[in-house]
Write a structure and sequence with these properties.
Blueprint lengths: L8 E4 H4 E6 L5 E2 L5 E3 L4 E2 L2 E2 L5 E3 L18 E4 L9 E3 L10 E2 L3 E6 L5 H8 L2 H4 L2 H4 E2 L6 E2 L1 H6 L1 E4 L2 H26 L1
Length: 186
């Protein structure tokens, strides 16, 4: 990476995430108390809940506590041509108080060294998205973003206060862009 401002460090995801795990492939039911976030649900703006699936009731007890989604988790599509690399910052669901992901989505849970919103914005940046093709393995329609590739991803890390300032600025700019697009389309 390039020279960084004072207080910033070059690091990798391995050093700033406490938990990186792909979901399990569940046995599905038409309805249950535990929804499954699949790659179709994962959108840059959040979770599209109408695409949620559900785990069979008898399978719920096979999930350990760390597999249940937490606010601030980053959900990163890890398979499939056309969807690999798309991510969402998880901020809960309207449909349920708990959820898990399927085997096509990887959960990244940030450590206290990094703001989850900063990590999410970095993942959706051109810096990372332009490298998705190089990070994936496999053949057409069977591509995969491996845990190893995720953990080796480099990230410039500012101090926490600076991360929050950057996220705030990005949110302001995104809101302005949305407003401008709305005015243009009107």
């Amino acid at each position: 990476m390039s020279e960084l401002p004072i207080g910033w460090v070059d690091t990798t995801f391995e050093d700033v995430v406490d938990y990186v795990q792909r979901g399990k492939s569940p046995k599905y039911a038409d309805e249950s108390e535990l929804p499954v976030v699949n790659q179709k649900c994962v959108r840059w703006w959040g979770i599209q809940e109408e695409f949620l699936k559900f785990i069979r009731q008898d399978q719920i007890e096979t999930y350990t506590e760390e597999r249940f989604l937490r606010d601030g988790d980053i959900l990163w599509n890890s398979t499939g041509t056309g969807t690999i690399g798309r991510a969402a910052l998880f901020q809960g669901l309207k449909a349920a108080s708990r959820a898990v992901v399927d085997g096509h989505v990887t959960i990244l849970r940030s450590s206290s060294a990094i703001d989850p919103s900063y990590l999410f914005n970095f993942i959706r940046s051109a810096t990372v998205q332009s490298r998705i093709e190089d990070m994936q393995t496999g053949t057409t329609n069977q591509v995969e973003l491996s845990k190893t590739a995720i953990l080796k991803t480099e990230i410039p890390l500012p101090p926490l206060a600076e991360q929050k300032r950057i996220v705030s600025k990005l949110n302001t700019l995104s809101a302005r862009t949305a407003t401008a697009r709305a005015h243009l389309s009107h």
